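Regression check, phosphoric acid mono(formamide)ester case 313:
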Amino acid sequence: MSALKSKHILGLFDMPVDDIQLILKTAGSMKYMLTSGNKRGPHLQGKSIVTLFYENSTRTRLSFELASKYLGASAANISASGSSVSKGETLLDTARTINMMGADVIVIRHPMSGAPRFLSKHIKASVINAGDGMNEHPTQALLDMYTIMEKKGAISGLNVCILGDIYHSRVARSNIWGLTKMGAKVSVAGPATLLPPQIEKMGVKVFGTVQQAIIDADVIINLRIQAERLSHCLLPSLREYSRFYGVDRKILSLAKKDAIILHPGPVNRGVELTSDIIDGDSSFINEQVTNGVAVRMALLFLLTRRSTDEAAC
Ligand code: CP
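Current build output:
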């Protein structure tokens, strides 16, 4: 079996295609195990995984914790509010402390773009970026790509449309880097104030309206409106957003008949998507959650196996 080239999972911008393919393939085996009725494996026996979250999370944090436990690792979590971070300890000192306790992998979510990369230069453990500011959320994009592969059989040649607040979205950035590397044609649409300047340079097509962007789409990735990162100068109201950029049945009918709908969650029901679409047959939002566990199992397994192989050399 081949090995990951990357020691850390910091983003899809610099992840080799071979690594993406290996992660998606390994996630397939992990999904099989996850859904087989016996969720326990020995893959991470003797390994310690620590999740260090400076921002709120349900899916990412829990799926890393469950993935660690399902594969036999010791898993622990610390969050900024309940740790010495609240007493003024720096990110680096916190990470060095975790490192000295023998963590093999540190999974970090941080509001500052670049925080996981900074850590990776200073500690021995592998670092996984669980979302850094407006930069990247690579494990979300990997689980999105896994879900697309599972439902469509391949990524290359597909029309993938990403809708919403692209500017603040680390999910959009990771998906754009990953999907274009894997041969998809990516288009984006959203309010002009929520599109990064010169986004075309990322290799995507930009549309002024959702209706134009969605025509012939195979996959629609709807992003969460991040109220916590928005000001009224950027978006007058959620109602206005929903009226012009929300997806309902009429708009969805412009996409391919078998188009699938993804959303990283948490969903603002009735804002990005109507409830009948969220709960309808085209939506694979629930499967994304399960696939998130499988992908994170794959990542933890591949990273720890890589370090064991290195130590043996
Ligand atoms: N998609 C995502 O990152 O969700 P959480 O914020 O719940 O982890």
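Comparison notes: The CA atoms of residues 9 and 128 lie 5 Å apart. The radius of gyration is 19 Å. No diff flagged against the previous build.
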